[in-house]
Design goal:
The complex is a heterodimer of chains A (148) and B (225). The longest helix of chain A is centred in the N-terminal third of the chain and has 26 residues, at 25-50. Chain A contains six helices and no strands. Chain A has 148 residues and is mainly α. Chain A has helices at 2-21, 25-50, 58-71, 93-96, 98-121, 124-145. A two-stranded antiparallel sheet of chain B has the order 1-2. The chains are: A mainly alpha (148), B mainly alpha (225). Chain A binds chain B through residues 40, 43-44, 46-48, 50-51, 128-129, 131-133, 135-136, 138-139, 142, 148, and chain B through 33-35, 38, 122-127, 143-144, 147.
């Protein structure tokens, strides 16, 4: 009986995964925008601390950094060819230069991945620098592939 | 006997050169981005304070600084430019009728840029101090405006510099030197009168008011609920 239940759950979850692996283009847009919104919210908090507009709090910085590191890896899976059209600020150039976009995305993810470890050291100057370096990799894509 | 005539008062000259330096600094820090954006914003606040000072000084300042002194009709500007095109430089004290409009549009475009900048959100890590106070739609509009208007400014600054060069090389008028020393060597052309120069103390008071206003807008108001 238990075996059957486990099997059923496994089956059901693989079905869910299968669905989750190929969202509709409009859901891709929804998912990447949601991920960017949450990434942006957390990164803005780090930015405010780095620019001393908000008091530096180590624990909050770590939490923000972890969210950014994780969430910023989400959108890359949701830029299929079919997701060009819809409620998106992504320019068609993005798909015309997909290899360049992917490279910039990779660079951004490389920088966001460093954020949590830097935040955990509690070294404010280092965090400030890492936030600036990370921000530059965000900007690289915004400049080329995001409509104003 | 040649009497030197003071054309530009000290406040105007300081205003001009500090503004020029800050505009270049703002352009560069805006392009470099990253942690330089903190300096870009501070430079913008300083520019805003200078522009507000200039507005005040345009009402209570020395003759050559006063709007009422150099804002002439568009027709007068046309007449002046036509004479200039014939090689006839009509002598003036302070801004000429065409230059007056150039000053007004340049100051206006800079003011627009500084005010729009207060609302900018780069959607990465940097926000103007008033972005939190406005709707996202307005913030997006101001961000676009701040972005496009920079090229209007670049074009206007280029025109300004070209005009100065034309006066220098074509008409042998050293306007740059005049903006540094403030003093004209030689007598005024007949019919022109020596401008009245206001005290620098009054200018300091104007600058204090302008700085206080900017401080209130960027430091106090955003923290108010």
């Amino acid at each position: 009986m238990r075996k059957i239940t486990v099997a059923a759950i496994v089956l059901a979850s693989t079905a869910l995964v299968a669905v989750a692996q190929q969202p509709k283009p409009e859901d891709e847009i929804k998912l990447r925008r949601a991920a960017y919104a949450l990434t942006g919210y957390n990164f803005a908090s780090l930015g405010a601390m780095a620019q001393e507009k908000k008091p530096y709090n180590k624990d909050e910085a770590i939490r923000n950094a972890e969210f950014v590191a994780l969430l910023s890896t989400v959108p890359k899976g949701f830029f299929s060819e079919a997701s060009q059209k819809g409620e998106t600020k992504a320019k068609p150039d993005l798909w015309a230069n997909k290899a360049d976009f992917d490279k910039k995305m990779e660079r951004m993810n490389a920088e966001t991945a460093k954020l949590p470890q830097v935040a955990r050291t509690g070294d404010f100057a280092a965090l400030k620098k890492q936030v600036a370096d990370t921000g530059a990799t965000c900007k690289a894509c915004h400049d080329d592939y995001r409509a104003k | 006997m040649v009497n030197p005539v003071r054309i530009w008062d000290l406040p105007i000259r300081l205003f001009h050169w500090v503004l020029a330096a800050l505009v270049v600094f703002s352009y560069i820090t805006g392009k470099v981005g990253g942690s330089w954006l903190e300096w870009h914003m501070k430079s913008g606040y300083a520019i805003l304070a200078l522009l507000l000072f200039r507005l005040l000084w345009g009402f209570v300042g020395s003759d050559t600084a006063c709007f009422s002194h150099f804002i002439r009709s568009p027709l007068a500007a046309m007449v002046y430019l036509r004479a200039l095109a014939r090689g006839d430089v009509r002598p003036v004290v302070g801004h000429n009728p065409a230059g007056g409009w150039s000053v007004i549009t340049l100051l206006g475009a800079l003011l627009l840029q500084a005010i729009a900048g207060l609302f900018v959100d780069d959607e990465i890590a940097t926000q103007g101090p008033l972005a939190v106070k406005a709707s996202n739609a307005f913030v997006a509009q101001m961000t676009r405006l701040h972005d496009y208007n920079q090229w209007v400014l670049v074009a206007m600054v280029a025109l300004h510099v070209v005009a100065i060069a034309v006066y220098r090389w074509r008409f042998n008028l050293g306007l740059t030197r005049l903006m540094i020393t403030g003093t004209l060597r030689g007598n005024l052309a007949p019919g022109l009168s020596v401008p009245r120069i206001r005290s620098t103390g009054l200018a300091v008071a104007c600058l204090a008011i302008a700085t206080g206003l900017v401080y209130a807008v960027v430091e106090i108001y955003p923290r108010m609920r």
